[in-house]
């Protein structure tokens, strides 16, 4: 329906999430579509709450996305978020049946230092 399309476009990232949703929607797999939307919403709600007030005011759900690394661990990203080079968002995601939960830790990326034999070295 039009409402489903509009809602999914507001929530899902057009590159990383929306194509998968559209694929399952075309197969009439409503359960998988609901899972994609609920997981995306949950992760993005956790991201929003990890941001400060200024970044929250510029928050656009569809700019953020969740992918998985090669080991299946959730990763979050935003190609438009200017601080992404200095920050990282650690994501924990759990879903069982109809329940989904997500936690986000926002932290500064550790600076790269040279180390030898376990000792901290200065550049």
Secondary structure blueprint with pairings:
Blueprint lengths: L1 H10 L6 H9 L3 H21 L2 H5 L6 E5 L5 E5 L8 E10 L2 E10 L5 E3 L2 E3 L2
Antiparallel strand pairs: 1-2, 3-4, 5-6
Write up this protein.
The protein is built from four helices and six strands; from the N terminus they run H-H-H-H-E-E-E-E-E-E. With about 120 residues, the protein is of the alpha+beta class. The chain has one domain: Alpha-Beta Complex (Ribosomal Protein L22, Chain A). The strands form three sheets. It has a two-stranded antiparallel ribbon. It has a two-stranded antiparallel sheet with strand order 3-4. Strands 5-6 form a two-stranded antiparallel ribbon. Helix 2 (about 20-25) packs antiparallel against helix 3 (about 30-50). The termini are far apart. The model has no long low-confidence stretch (mean pLDDT about 90).
């Amino acid at each position: 329906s039009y409402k489903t399309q509009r809602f999914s476009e507001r929530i899902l990232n057009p590159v990383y999430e929306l194509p998968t949703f559209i694929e399952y929607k075309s197969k009439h797999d409503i359960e998988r579509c609901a899972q994609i939307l609920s997981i995306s919403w949950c992760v993005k709600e956790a991201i929003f709450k990890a941001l400060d007030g200024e970044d929250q005011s510029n928050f656009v759900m569809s700019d953020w996305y969740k992918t998985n690394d090669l080991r299946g661990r959730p990763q979050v990203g935003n190609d438009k978020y200017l601080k992404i080079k200095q920050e990282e968002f650690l994501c924990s995601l759990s879903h069982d049946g109809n329940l989904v939960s997500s936690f986000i830790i926002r932290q500064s990326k550790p600076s790269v230092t040279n180390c030898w034999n376990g000792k901290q070295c200065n550049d």
